[in-house]
Write a structure and sequence with these properties.
It contains nine helices and no strands. By secondary structure, it is mainly alpha-helical. GO terms for molecular function: microtubule binding.
Length: 209
Amino acid sequence: MANKENELTCSDDVRGMHYNDNCGLPVNSAEASKMAGASSKYSDFTELTKDHEAMTHVLFGRNLRLKVAQTLWRRNASELVAYLIRIQDTGVLLDCLPVLTNNLQTEAPCLSLGCCVDLMPQVKVILASKYEQHIMVGLHWVQSIIKKWWPELSKNEKRLQDSCSEDRNIEVMKQRLKDLWKEGARLCLVPGSTGELAKTIEAYLSQLP
């Protein structure tokens, strides 16, 4: 279903797609203090080795899940979305979300509006992250949805309960965007590019009927 531009290739995984759960700058000084004391954490090589083995195990599992995601993406976008929802792994979602965002910006995206509706609750979790890089991934996703379906989202008309599934999804997405921004509005106060992108999104969402 997906063409070569949309495929989650192994080279994509290597080139900057791994969003480590601890990447980016922490927004509070407590995290910085923990990092400052990291050098005194280990008393011998045994503890150091155990920590490295645990990290290797985590990355191995992460890589396996990404390979499954890659296979599902090539087969059917809706299967990938169902998989991401089922595993509830924020790290894997952060890896995949930029690819899905780019796909929405193409003329013929593989992702349906229904798939995007289903992913919104997990994206809401990402926007609540303390890491700015993670938040930016979520904001770009939200922006791509708004741009893709803005003509439909901005229509000031109520759709009937017995209308087609696409119309119902528009109404659900509209409500989820509004609910999302009840908490997401605070991101407009973040300095720099994150705050600017949040303000751009808010300018659209404030126009929703």
